[in-house]
């Protein structure tokens, strides 16, 4: 089969582009630790309230400028509802759902994770800029899905 | 052997000269009618959603946003696409393989009624607000069991049609030993192989996991496993509709512009990897799921991106065919040759715009399948913009372009210049509407606006984050789209029942003169299917075993709407 030279060049570039995406993705995920939220712990979805750490959802300072937020998601709210941290702090979220699949997204940040019943999800973010951040559920979860939101206040 | 061969090839010739038999035409016309009625209803519901999200329409409680959205998704992603694909390929099989065998016709009708029965079972609970679970129906949201039984009948119908197609193809191959399957039938084989492969996953999810659970026989469900099985189907399904469109790009469009087909071997080499590597693409819908390790996710980035390669081959092939044809007609200059293309012919214009749309659509797809970039846009309006480009433009506009010759071919009527003009206007309106809508969806998605969410201000955040103007544009796009839908549906039924009688050809481009003979190994479908199964096992065995062994206690059913 004869192929035109320009087709060979095009296919070579195509292959190179796909490999480039692979290499960048791999480099960011492995070397820079920017892999997607993939926590593997599980939990009994019917006993979330009795299982540590979700028996005491809330915010806790765990270091200088470092906070841990233990949060449950349920139709159609987040517990705890209001979170306040000083600017420049890193927040580690530990999340699970008490009912259906929810999404945990904070607008204007890279926080975006699926939160599923039976699974514990973790995601971290450093909040540099002071202000109010919208937290919303981005997975359809029922009639009140559009009302499922809260905010993070960074002072 | 010899007499059988003679009769089929004589039959093949008569079909090609006299046009499709009435019985075969009736099958395809029925499928296309259902497809375009689904387009009308789905488009109307799309307008309701667009206006709701633009903030100008409040939906009543008896027809709420999530009911409308569930129906919109199912009507357009499952009904329109599947019925069109089947109607088109059955006509193609009839045309290129010498008419459908009587038993294949029977299978096509059984499949048709199974699918219709399934859809009735699916639609009733949606209308009664007992199945507002979206096209993805993620457990532990649980719809009425009737919804899932409906899905089972739809899948059984698809299998019936696939086996009908395989029977037809196998019969042809038996009578044409050593010959290459005609190219359109080759695409059809790939499409039906993928349909069986993809629906097998969702069948396991629905039959073995969801139905026993909604009936209360088991009290918990593995949420992650169900999602995984769904996406092995869900993503493949949309790629099947895309492969259907691609078949027309390679086989039909070159004929319409008066040219010859792209290299036969390279064409078949696009179909084969799309079949082998397709099903594993589904995992990229789960890049930010818990319970799947980063290394598995990384492997799946590779598997998803690999499907991009045949599409990049297609991009080259199409523009090369255009240029070659235009230059043969006297087109000159580095880009001046484009003037020689038949821009006023809707049968070319619509699929051409569809192809152009696939450039940003495919690029967006590559972006979305990479881990970190996906995390930025996952479940935002960006994704909705993406699949309105891929499905709403690349696939559906190709289907529209096909309808302007396929419907008159089936009904033994002709496309009049007036109807062609209407088609061009329809194409332009649809393009403008879709471009406005898809661009605004992509932008507002980058700003964080979530998908599948009815109108909400989030306090004053929607305003502060600058979402509102883009949502208004989505509403405007949806309005234009409905206008184009009405024109399109009018055109289809006019061409089916009222256009002037006459002969319309089934446009299939020939190979270039003096083209090299394609080697026979392309026809080894057994090997392609085995390779497909190998790639699927490579992708899925490890994570699925992990999901089963390390499963949390199951979730009970919830009705949260």
UniProtKB/TrEMBL annotation, chain A:
Record-annotated Cytochrome oxidase subunit II copper A binding domain positions: 49-155
Main localization of the protein described in the UniProt heading: other
Location of the protein in the cell: Cell envelope
Organism of origin: Mesobacillus subterraneus
GO CC entries: cell envelope; membrane
Name of the protein: Cytochrome aa3 subunit 2
PROSITE patterns: COX2, COX2_CUA
Classification lineage: Bacteria, Bacillati, Bacillota, Bacilli, Bacillales
UniProt function note: Subunits I and II form the functional core of the enzyme complex. Electrons originating in cytochrome c are transferred via heme a and Cu(A) to the binuclear center formed by heme a3 and Cu(B).
Alphabetic keyword roster: Copper, Membrane, Metal-binding, Transmembrane, Transmembrane helix
UniProt keyword S-adenosyl-L-methionine present: no
Automatic annotation (TrEMBL), chain B:
GO-annotated cellular components: membrane
Top-level division of the source organism's lineage: Bacteria
Residues of the signal peptide: none
Domain Cytochrome oxidase subunit I profile: 21-493
Parts of the chain that traverse the membrane: 31-51, 71-91, 107-127, 147-169, 181-211, 231-253, 265-287, 299-319, 348-367, 387-407, 428-450, 470-493, 525-545
Alphabetized UniProt keyword annotations: Electron transport, Membrane, Respiratory chain, Transmembrane, Transmembrane helix, Transport
SUPFAM superfamilies membership: Cytochrome c oxidase subunit I-like
A Pfam family this chain is assigned to: COX1
Gene Ontology BP term (one): aerobic respiration
GO molecular function, one term: heme binding
Name of the molecule in the record: Cytochrome C
């Amino acid at each position: 089969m004869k192929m035109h030279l320009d087709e060979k060049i095009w296919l070579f570039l195509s292959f190179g582009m796909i490999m480039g995406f692979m290499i960048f993705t791999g480099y960011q995920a492995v070397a820079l630790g920017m892999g997607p939220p993939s926590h593997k712990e599980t939990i009994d979805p019917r006993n979330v309230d009795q299982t540590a750490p979700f028996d005491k959802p809330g915010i806790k300072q765990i270091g200088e400028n470092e906070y841990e937020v233990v949060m449950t998601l349920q139709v159609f709210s987040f517990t705890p509802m209001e979170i306040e941290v000083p600017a420049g702090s890193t927040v580690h979220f530990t999340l699970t759902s008490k009912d259906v699949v929810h999404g945990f997204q904070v607008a204007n940040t890279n926080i975006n994770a699926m939160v599923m019943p039976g699974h514990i999800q973790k995601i971290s973010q450093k909040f540099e800029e002071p202000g109010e951040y919208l937290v919303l559920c981005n997975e359809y979860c029922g009639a009140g899905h559009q009302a499922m939101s809260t905010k993070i206040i960074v002072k | 052997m010899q007499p059988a061969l003679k009769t089929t090839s004589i039959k093949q010739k008569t079909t090609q000269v006299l046009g499709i038999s009435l019985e075969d035409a009736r099958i395809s016309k029925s499928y296309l009618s259902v497809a375009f009625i689904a387009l009308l209803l789905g488009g109307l519901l799309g307008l309701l959603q667009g206006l709701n999200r633009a903030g100008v329409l409040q939906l009543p409680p008896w027809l709420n946003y999530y009911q409308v959205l569930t129906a919109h998704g199912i009507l357009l992603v499952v009904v329109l696409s599947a019925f069109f694909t089947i109607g088109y390929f059955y006509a193609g099989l009839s045309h290129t393989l010498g008419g459908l065998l009587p038993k294949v016709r029977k299978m096509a009708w059984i499949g048709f009624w199974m699918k219709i029965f399934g859809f009735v079972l699916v639609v009733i609970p949606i209308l009664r607000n007992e199945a507002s679970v979206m096209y993805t129906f993620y457990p532990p949201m649980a719809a009425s069991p009737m919804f899932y039984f409906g899905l089972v009948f739809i899948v059984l119908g698809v299998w019936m049609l696939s086996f009908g197609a395989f029977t037809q193809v196998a019969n042809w191959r038996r009578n044409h030993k050593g010959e290459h399957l005609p190219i359109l039938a080759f695409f059809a084989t790939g499409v039906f192989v993928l349909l069986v492969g993809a629906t097998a996953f969702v069948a396991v999810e629905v039959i073995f996991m969801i139905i026993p659970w909604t009936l209360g026989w088991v009290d918990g469900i593995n949420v992650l496993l169900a999602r995984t099985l769904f996406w092995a189907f869900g993503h493949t399904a949309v790629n099947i509709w895309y492969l259907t469109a691609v078949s027309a790009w390679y086989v039909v469009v070159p004929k319409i512009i008066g040219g010859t087909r792209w290299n036969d071997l390279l064409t078949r080499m696009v179909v084969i990897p799309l079949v082998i590597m397709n099903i594993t693409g589904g995992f990229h819908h789960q890049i930010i799921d818990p319970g799947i390790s980063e290394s598995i996710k990384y492997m799946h980035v590779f598997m998803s991106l690999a499907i991009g390669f045949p599409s990049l081959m297609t991009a080259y092939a199409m523009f090369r065919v255009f240029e070659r044809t235009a230059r043969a007609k006297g087109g000159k200059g580095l880009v001046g040759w484009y003037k020689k293309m038949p821009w006023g012919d809707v049968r070319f214009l619509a699929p051409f715009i569809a192809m152009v749309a696939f450039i940003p659509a495919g690029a967006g797809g590559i972006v979305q399948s990479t881990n970190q970039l996906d995390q930025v846009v996952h479940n935002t309006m960006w994704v909705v913009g993406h699949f309105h480009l891929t499905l709403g433009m690349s696939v559906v506009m190709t289907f529209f372009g096909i309808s302007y010759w396929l419907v008159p071919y089936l009904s033994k009527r002709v496309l009049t210049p007036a109807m062609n003009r209407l088609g061009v206007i329809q194409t332009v309106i649809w393009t403008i509407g879709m471009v406005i809508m898809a661009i605004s969806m992509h932008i507002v998605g980058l700003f964080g606006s979530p998908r599948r969410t009815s109108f909400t201000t989030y306090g004053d955040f929607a305003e502060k984050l600058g979402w509102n103007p883009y949502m208004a544009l989505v509403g405007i796009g949806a309005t234009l789209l409905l206008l184009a839908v009405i024109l399109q549906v009018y055109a289809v039924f006019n061409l089916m029942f009222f256009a002037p009688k006459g002969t319309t050809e089934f446009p299939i481009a020939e190979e270039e003169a003096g083209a090299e003979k394609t080697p026979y190994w392309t026809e080894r479908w057994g090997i392609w299917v085995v390779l497909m199964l190998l790639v699927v096992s490579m992708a899925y065995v490890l994570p699925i075993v992990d999901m089963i062994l390390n499963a949390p206690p199951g979730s009970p059913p919830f009705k949260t709407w």
